[in-house]
Amino acid sequence: MPTIATFHGVIIRLYYHDHQPPHFHALYGEAEALIGINLVVVLQGRLPAARLKDVLAWAQRHQPDLRDRWQRCQNHQPVPRIAYP
Length: 85
What we know:
By secondary structure, the chain is of the alpha+beta class. It has helices at 49-61, 63-74, and strands spanning 3-7, 10-13, 23-28, 31-36, 42-46. It has a 5-stranded antiparallel β-sheet with strand order 1-2-3-4-5.
């Protein structure tokens, strides 16, 4: 499970061979949300409002990078980190 980014205490991870639709996991303390990549929305879970706002804005800016990293995970390839912001 590669960590592809960290910011404001949020950890962004992908899992190898994860289920569809393409998504990433955003963790903040005990909170976790699955965020869609093709349509940047919360698919499951929750985060505090301020952190969710940061995560959604970051995901919008990095959609092409997230699609690339998702595909790399599906192919079990090395997954480079994505910069913040």
